Amino acid sequence: MIKLVKITSVFVILASLTACTGHVENQDKSCGYDYFLHPAISISKIIGGCGPATAQPTK
Predict the structure, then answer these.
(1) Does residue 51 carry a pLDDT above 70?
(2) Which stretch of DSSP H or E encloses residue 32?
(3) What is the signed CA dihedral for 37, 43, 49, 54, rounded to 10 degrees?
C-alpha cells in the first residue's frame, strides 16, 4: 500500500512539472483562457466565460 502511495505521488509531481498547461481561444479568437492539466476543469470553461472553444489540434 505504501509503495502505491509513493508511485502515485511521484506521478502527480511529474505530471505537474511537465508543462501540462495550455491555452484555448474561442471561435472568434477574441477571448482565451489558460488551463492546468485539462481544459475541461478550467474555471473559465466551467462558467462559460469565453463561449464555445475552437477545436484543438491533436498531437
Answers:
(1) no
(2) strand 32-36
(3) 20
